[in-house]
Amino acid sequence: MATFLLAAGPPLGAVAWDQVARRLQSQGHDVLRHDLCTAEPDRARVGDHVQALAEHIDRLDAPPFVVGQGLAVPVVMGILANRKIPGLALINGPIDTLDPFTAALSRALVKPALAAQTLLQPDLFRRFLWSSLGYRRLVVNPYVMGRDTVVMVTGAAFSTAKRREALAVFLHDLPEHLARPVAQTSAPTPTLLLWGDDDRLYPAHVADRARASFEKAEHVRIPGGRHLHIIERPWETADALDAWVRRLTGDADAGRGDGATLT
Q1: Strands 261-262 and 3-8
Q2: Distance from first CA to last CA of the chain, Å, rounded?
Q3: pLDDT averaged over the chain?
Q4: What is the pLDDT of residue 255?
Q5: Which of 8, 19, 38, 73 could covalently link to 93 via disulfide, CB atoms 3.0 to 4.6 Å apart?
């Protein structure tokens, strides 16, 4: 079967993929993870993350299917101009523009070291993530993701001052990176836009609009899925990835267990 390389966008750590990874492994796939929350501040710009991901791929015996969620989407998209891979999956993230919340945060992080000491303090930021005014209402389904889950999946990004500074560097660099056109190679890479259709940060029409940027793309919706459906609906997410790979490889069992909607 296939090898998947999963990357979640900060502030989510690799642990956010736990249930998706287990489901994919039960379907016979090999699963690896790439953690964007462990970079040093001087290696935290989007281009640095693209290079680190490319080096990760180079260490493997064969190129994997690369999957990026949230703010990892610009990073995994950078692989299209750097490495040949069998497929790229993008999950609810910025393709050509940032959501208003992240864009405002990016503008505020003009001094990353100061941001790490103040704005991105773990207690302060997690209180915001959980507040009814912020992340909880926009992104988190409170009936599925409790406070402990939020703390767990964001723990790596806020664990040290250096990691908080690296997060600030990454967020501040994002707008400039997204201003560049999507890189295309001579041989188009099959691309899956796997979107939760109830995401308020990056609504489904973002994926519909983005299809024109890729020469070989399909859009699959997770019914009722929000921004973090990799955590809230992990089996449906994994089944959609499994079905996509089976369609690409011509597997006779393509689509088994797939509760997603292909558009």
Answers
A1: unpaired
A2: 25
A3: 86
A4: 45
A5: 73
